[in-house]
Amino acid sequence: QGYEGLVEGGDNIKQANWLSVSNIIQLGGTVIGSARCKAFTTRAGRLRAARNLVEHGITNLCVIGGDGSLTGADIFRSEWAGLLEELVRDGQISEEVARKNCRLNIVGLVGSIDNDFCGTDMTIGTDSALHRIMEIVDAITTTAQSHQRTFVLEVMGRHCGYLALVSGLASGADWLFIPESPPEDGWEDLMCERLGE
C-alpha cells in the first residue's frame, strides 16, 4: 500500500517470492496496492516508516509514483540520518543497528499515466491507460454509430491532456478539450457547426 504500508508496517511489509508474484504480469501495477498517506507527510509518520524499515533490514527502496511519491522519497532520504539518530535517542534501536542501516538508497520511477515528465519517452502507466481508453472507444463507437448519436468521452489526466490528445487522434474524435489549451469564447457554436457537418 505504498507509504501507508511503510508507516503501518506489520503484514504490509513482506518478502516477494515466486509464488506471491506468479500470474500478475498482466495486471495493472496497483496489484501491489496504492494509497495516499497523510501520515508520511509528517516527520512522526516518516519516523515510524524508518523504524519499520530498520526492523526488516531494508536499506533500498524503489519508489514508483508521481510528484507526491517522489517528493516524499526525497524528503525521506534527506532526513534518514536524523531519523535514525532520533530512534537511537528514544531507545527504539541500538547504535549498532543505526550504523548497520546508516545509508538509505532510493530509486525513483515516474509512475504516472499523464506522460508529463521530461526526459522520458513515456512514463509508466501511460501505455496501459491509452490501451484501456482505446478499448472503450472501440466498444462505444459501434453503439454511437447504430444510434446515430454523438458520444462524449472523458478520459483520465488531471492537469495534463496527453491521454485525451493521443486517444482523440487515434479514435478520430471530432472535438477535443485539453487543459493546456482551454477553449476560446464561442466554442459552443463552433463545435455544433463542426458536429453538424
UniProtKB/TrEMBL annotation:
> How is this protein named in the record?
PFKAL protein
- Name the cofactor(s): Mg(2+)
Q: Which organism is it from?
A: Polioptila caerulea
Q: Which domain of life is it from?
A: Eukaryota
A biological process term (GO) from this entry:
canonical glycolysis
Cross-referenced PANTHER family: ATP-DEPENDENT 6-PHOSPHOFRUCTOKINASE, LIVER TYPE, PHOSPHOFRUCTOKINASE
GO MF? 6-phosphofructokinase activity; AMP binding; ATP binding; fructose-6-phosphate binding; identical protein binding; metal ion binding; monosaccharide binding
Q: In its keyword annotation, does this UniProt entry include Kinase?
A: yes
Pathway given in the UniProt record? Carbohydrate degradation; glycolysis; D-glyceraldehyde 3-phosphate and glycerone phosphate from D-glucose: step 3/4
Lineage, opening ranks = Eukaryota, Metazoa, Chordata, Craniata, Vertebrata
Pfam families from the UniProt entry: PFK
Reactions listed under catalytic activity: beta-D-fructose 6-phosphate + ATP = beta-D-fructose 1,6-bisphosphate + ADP + H(+)
Keywords, in A-Z order? Cytoplasm, Glycolysis, Kinase, Magnesium, Metal-binding, Transferase
The family database entries (SUPFAM superfamilies) matched by this protein are listed as: Phosphofructokinase (SSF53784)
Task: Give all residue intervals belonging to the Phosphofructokinase domain.
Answer: 1-184
- Kinase as a keyword of this entry, yes or no, is yes
Q: Which GO terms describe its cellular component?
A: 6-phosphofructokinase complex; membrane
